[in-house]
Amino acid sequence: MDLLRFITCGSVDDGKSTLIGRLLYDSKSILADQLEAVEKASKSRDNGEVDLALLTDGLRSEREQGITIDVAYRYFQTTARKFIIVDAPGHIQYTRNMVTGASNCQLAIVLIDARHGVVEQTRRHSLIASMLGIQHVVVAVNKMDLVGFSEDVFSNICIRYAELAQKLAIPHITYIPLSALNGDNVVDRSAHMPWYEGTTLLHYLETITIQQDENLLHGRMPVQLVIRPQTAELPDYRGYAGKVTCGSFRVGEAVTVLPSGETSTVSRIERGEKDVPEAGIDESVILHLADNIDVSRGDLIVPSASQPIVSQDVEAMLCWMDSKAFSVGNKYVLQVGTARTRCSVRDIPYQLNIETYEQIEGIDTLKINDLARVTLRTAQPIAFDPYTQNRANGGAILIDETSNVTVGALMLAN
Amino acid sequence: MDYLDQLESEAIHIMREVAGQFERPALLFSGGKDSITLVHLARKAFRPGKFPFPLVHIDTGHNFQEALDFRDWLANSLGERLIVRYVEDTIKAKKLKEPTGRNATRNGLQTFTLLETIEEFEFDACIGGARRDEEKARAKERVFSVRDEFGSWDPKRQRPELWNLYNGRVHKGENVRVFPISNWTELDVWNYIRRENIALPSLYFAHDRELLLRDGKLMATAGNVIQPEADDERVTRKVRFRTVGDISCTAASESEAESLDDVIAEIQATRISERGETRMDDQLSEAAMEDRKKGGYF
């Protein structure tokens, strides 16, 4: 059985939490005592009906305010697939939380309230999904019950969304009309929309093929640590532990260690205390090299035949996540893979208006939740791939040296 | 790739990040199935090397003897260092007031001993077996969860955590709680234990046991931790423990499941969550876990 991680974008007003509650409830992933707790909470809020949204809003202040503040993770499983739902807040001040949530997802559900159609936040959520490299978007047109299950309303929203998507880079878009509150087209087919011939949301999630394009990419393994037992039995053992973030490595393959550029050959691969001939994508392994060269944490092992960019000059899309401003001249720690180096901000070529997608030039400072193109100069060369070609080796974070907090998400370009 | 392989590899990656980013990490070991799974994952992450951290157990003094014996056997057979610190010692040294009365538990006092132990050894990272599916406050916690010098979790000030890039940089006095099996569910843990043939304490499998029936829950009589009251009925039932924690707040479930296959079948069929069935400490209020985490609890 495989695993699908998807993010739901929308605010409470769109019925996002209700939709997740519905998916969990109708797929029988909610247990009796959890439902009982929600029933209890629903009663204490005098709204009578069982509020499925309360299943997902975990923090006290979220329940008090009826909004989702931080990313929450939900788990459910059907006979077809195992799912991780990344439940991200929709308000503009939580853009950074949505970026956090989207970074590990293969699919995004963008909720649209059928009464309101494509609105500003639809544009924002879609932009973030696109920027974060999500290949599959489901446009879930919710609250169809409140527009009389009208096919025209649905078709118009689809047309409007397709227009905005032309400016984005999302290859696969699917439209589903539904009512999360009543369960129409979520798990069970709706009797109210005979004109809709597509699948239900759950069926779509269960059957969609997530392209394993990453498998075809070139091998990349950031070195996490060097394992050297130095015992009487293993005096010379020296293995490089890490996770293959994309592609694969085979015993006998010629490899280069970056940023130093030293070369060797893979002499042995271990996985879970066993020798294997090949290390595939997402596998945590130990690589051994034939030659005694200098390799340590922060290095990237790649096939000599297909090397990434190695540079001190970096251009990237940035989502700024800190309340302290990001300005030209500021210095940060940049982390890509397991490598960390200091960097300084050279320039902000443009800021992106997250609702109109317009590029605003002449900006020298960014505030929290801003998206912008930036150029940086690093103290040490870093080895990376363009994010649009390789999510695993093209994402980086900025860390504030004084607060130690993660303050920016970078999608590396050039 | 099978989902169990993905979860396993993710957990190994997280543990190796701890080894790579921290100077004095520790693995908090309770003797329960989740921390036993962590130990198994640590073998896969670091063998043939030694673990880059000791196993640390905060003993409430209210543990099942079977779990303690298993803990000692496991540390011994692995040849890894085990550090045990006792809540009893903290109570005496700090003259702490123990909760009394019906359903009293030392679970809250565990936090004091944990924070003392972190200070004593200057641990900068503590690996724990918490899962996001356990409870709704946990569902919001990062894999690398930064705690201030009081061990407090501030849900509104969590660091962004992107891709598989973990930021473990902290100031002196702060430390990070790390949860490698954040994305595992109870069923995932059991399926993994079966697949990997991981040994568990016998408490997890159905056996005949003398218990107290209190408020519909079956409480263990072991170690005289729970004092019988007039309304309690002494019964003998065939039970297993779905979680193995402090005796005072861990209830048994009636069960015929003597093997891993039986246990997994039972969990798949159940309609009650793990914590709802067995843990008394989370039922105090809607935000019980959130409050305890803010106070430094795991």
From TrEMBL, chain A:
Gene Ontology molecular function terms on file: ATP binding; GTP binding; GTPase activity; sulfate adenylyltransferase (ATP) activity
Keywords: ATP-binding, GTP-binding, Nucleotide-binding, Nucleotidyltransferase, Transferase
Pfam family, one: GTP-eEF1A_C
An individual GO BP term: sulfur compound metabolic process
Gene3D superfamilies: P-loop containing nucleotide triphosphate hydrolases (3.40.50.300), Translation factors (2.40.30.10)
Enzyme Commission number(s): 2.7.7.4
Domain Tr-type G: 1-216
NCBIfam families documented for this protein: CysN
Name of this chain's protein: sulfate adenylyltransferase
The species this protein was found in: Fibrella aquatilis
From TrEMBL, chain B:
NCBIfam families: CysD, PRK05253.1, PRK12563.1
Residue ranges of every copy of the Phosphoadenosine phosphosulphate reductase domain listed in the record: 25-251
Keyword field contains ATP-binding: yes
Disordered, as annotated region: 275-298
Taxonomic superkingdom: Bacteria
Protein name in the entry: Sulfate adenylyltransferase subunit 2
Species classification: Bacteria, Pseudomonadati, Bacteroidota, Cytophagia, Cytophagales
Amino acid composition bias (Basic and acidic residues), ranges on this chain: 289-298
Keywords: ATP-binding, Nucleotide-binding, Nucleotidyltransferase, Transferase
Name of the encoding gene: cysD
GO biological process terms on file: sulfate assimilation
Family classification: Belongs to the PAPS reductase family. CysD subfamily.
Keyword flag Transferase: yes
Gene3D superfamilies, per the entry: HUPs
InterPro entries reported in the protein's UniProt record: PAPS_reduct_dom, Rossmann-like_a/b/a_fold, SO4_adenylTrfase_ssu, Sulfate_adenylyltrnsfr_sub2
GO MF: ATP binding; sulfate adenylyltransferase (ATP) activity
Its EC number(s): 2.7.7.4
Coiled-coil residues: none
Organism: Fibrella aquatilis
SUPFAM superfamilies: Adenine nucleotide alpha hydrolases-like (SSF52402)
Top class in the EC scheme: transferase
